[in-house]
Amino acid sequence: MSRIQEISAKSCVAVLCLLFFLVGCSTDDKEELEEQSENTSESILNQSWEDTLAEAEGSEVHFYMWGGDEGINHYIDDWVAPRLQERYNITLTRHPMDITEILQKLQTEKRAGKEDGSIDVVWINGENFKNAKENDLLWGSFTDYLPNYQQYVNKENSEQQYDFGTTIEGMEAPWGKVQYVFLYDSAKVEEPPASFADLAEWVKKNPGTFTYPEAQDFSGSGFLKHVLYDKIGIEALDGKEYNPSLLQQHSDEIWGYLNELQPHLWREGETYPSTLSDLDHLYSQGEVLFTMGYNEGRAERLIADGTFPETTRSFVMEPGSIGNLHFLSIPFNSTNTAGALVTINELLSPEAQLKKLEPSVWGDNTVLDINKLPDSYQEKLKDIERGESVLSADELQDSFLNEMDPEYTEWIKEYWISEVVQSGNN
Amino acid sequence: MKPSIVQLVKMFLLGCVFFALVTPLLLLLLNSFAHEWRWPQIIPASFSLRAWSVVFSDPHIWSSIGWTVLIGSMVVCLNLLLGLPAAKALAYYEFKGKSLVETFLLLPILIPSLAIGMGLLLTMIRVGLADHWAGVVLIHLLPTLPYTIRILRAGYENIGAGYEEAARNLGASSWKAFWTITVPLLFPSLRAVLALTFVISLSQYVLTALIGGGQVVTLAMIYYPYLAGIDRSVTAALSLLFVLLPILLVCIFELVSHLSRKVVTTNQMRDET
């Protein structure tokens, strides 16, 4: 018995020694990196852009982002990365990782005091930005330093100052802009509803053809926020602080409306799709005639790859369509802030933003102020065909609504189950 | 008449099992080539190679398969290295606090590994194992080692200590006894351990993301984000890759063990003559 234990103990020790040895090989250059980063992070925002370009040259930038969309991955790997390589000799590596895990990683690294992190750029917005900012996981206020931000972004615009109600303070740079639209199959629906009242009429006449994702889902709460805008009114919510008395005043109307819809929804409202992709799947199989979601251009590629019917079109309803931005930021322990700044600046260039807008690439709207662009780009922007399923720029602009205070979303998520799912099905 | 009925039933059951195993794979295969496939069409309306070209144009795909196989194999080896002595001790020996040791070795299954992983990450960062494949290999021991010890222990208990003792009494070295007696007798358990630990290691997403920190990109890191998306064809293509890896590995293992047994038996025959 003792021999066996001895052997197992020996092998354990041997394995651990081996692993430590292997890991030990790479620690030397890490120390060098650490010294470098300490030098750069303090002075970099005071030096000229040319110096930053020179510093970034030949470096490697690690871009951490959600990896579940082939079009977006393609855009980064095959358009952005070669361009950065060619113009600035920067090697861009994309790492597929969900933002929750990225923040978890940064949070733990913060606790462990790890100053030489592996992430240089992250894709972030909303709740996650709020968490990251509150926990000091971000590098600093850098947007004013970027030439393309200075030149092309309208900083006065409220959407450039608040991200879901959190003040941005230059800690993240805008990257793209999406609006919430509804999608329908024009071969089966002649005239989509124009307002929430219309929608109620529609589902009563055509039971089982409409549903929305549950409140816990990002797109589900998006749908419910539109109901809030409809019942409470735009003036009281857009750009205003959280006011619980409004909810008390209107809660009967809000839940009343949703309960009125419920028996006529898909499967008599006994169950709701738990995610947007579940609803998309129902729509792609023709089980329901509508789907929805942020990004007014997202139907184009789904039509092209055969997931959605070719007759898919989009619409917005009164009182409007909520839009929000998504952003890029730099973590507190990035070891290549110069490279990160150049990369983010490049992603904000008119060329990169126009490419991103093409429906076959991504179809994500630009964050640049069109009036600030050179004429040639304004022309190009007008010439981009976003596809038949996408509403016109004017129509989208006219219906644009800002995100409301996140407290409202919390309220919806908290009460939706008890007020709608449980009360209606009892 | 009677045996033929039994045979029929057997055939039927076998057919059912085969059907249950193969149909999902066939569906995946069909789905990965489908361009438009809507209910109530029985087969897709049109086909395309898009999903496969998406999968293989991902710059990470080949390196991720390499890392997956490498990490999985190392996890299997470490499992055997640590699991064999532990299982033998638990199967054959009585000692103070044995039940305590047993429970301790089972704990990783009972406590969610994410909770342990979060705690270990802090240590791994300090030691320098985070963001490194070695850390990922170590963390994969967490969800695999308890099963390995269980399986091997049952294997050892089935054989009993007698054969090995007999061999030792006849003058075989402990190494020779292990290699010529224990390993062949333990073979079914070893095969089970190999398949199970490899599959578990392959499918770790959260632990790999946590400890590997996005620097260690295994197949799961590419596959899981697509699972949440709507693109069924790409998901199907990646799923097939996911299924093929362990099957291939088990085949290689069978081949190698078959050949080595042949070599061993011919050697033995030569020794005898």
TrEMBL record, chain A:
<protein>
    <submittedName>
        <fullName>Putative spermidine/putrescine transport system substrate-binding protein</fullName>
    </submittedName>
</protein>
<dbReference type="InterPro" id="IPR006059">
    <property type="entry name" value="SBP"/>
</dbReference>
<dbReference type="Pfam" id="PF13416">
    <property type="entry name" value="SBP_bac_8"/>
</dbReference>
<dbReference type="InterPro" id="IPR027020">
    <property type="entry name" value="YnjB"/>
</dbReference>
Automatic annotation (TrEMBL), chain B:
<keyword id="KW-1003">Cell membrane</keyword>
<feature type="transmembrane region" description="Helical">
    <location>
        <begin position="205"/>
        <end position="224"/>
    </location>
</feature>
<feature type="domain" description="ABC transmembrane type-1">
    <location>
        <begin position="65"/>
        <end position="253"/>
    </location>
</feature>
<feature type="transmembrane region" description="Helical">
    <location>
        <begin position="61"/>
        <end position="82"/>
    </location>
</feature>
<dbReference type="InterPro" id="IPR035906">
    <property type="entry name" value="MetI-like_sf"/>
</dbReference>
<feature type="transmembrane region" description="Helical">
    <location>
        <begin position="236"/>
        <end position="256"/>
    </location>
</feature>
<feature type="transmembrane region" description="Helical">
    <location>
        <begin position="177"/>
        <end position="198"/>
    </location>
</feature>
<keyword id="KW-0997">Cell inner membrane</keyword>
<comment type="similarity">
    <text>Belongs to the binding-protein-dependent transport system permease family.</text>
</comment>
<protein>
    <submittedName>
        <fullName>Putative spermidine/putrescine transport system permease protein</fullName>
    </submittedName>
</protein>
<feature type="transmembrane region" description="Helical">
    <location>
        <begin position="103"/>
        <end position="125"/>
    </location>
</feature>
<dbReference type="GO" id="GO:0005886">
    <property type="term" value="C:plasma membrane"/>
</dbReference>
<keyword id="KW-0472">Membrane</keyword>
<dbReference type="InterPro" id="IPR000515">
    <property type="entry name" value="MetI-like"/>
</dbReference>
<dbReference type="GO" id="GO:0055085">
    <property type="term" value="P:transmembrane transport"/>
</dbReference>
<keyword id="KW-0812">Transmembrane</keyword>
<keyword id="KW-1133">Transmembrane helix</keyword>
<keyword id="KW-0813">Transport</keyword>
<dbReference type="Pfam" id="PF00528">
    <property type="entry name" value="BPD_transp_1"/>
</dbReference>
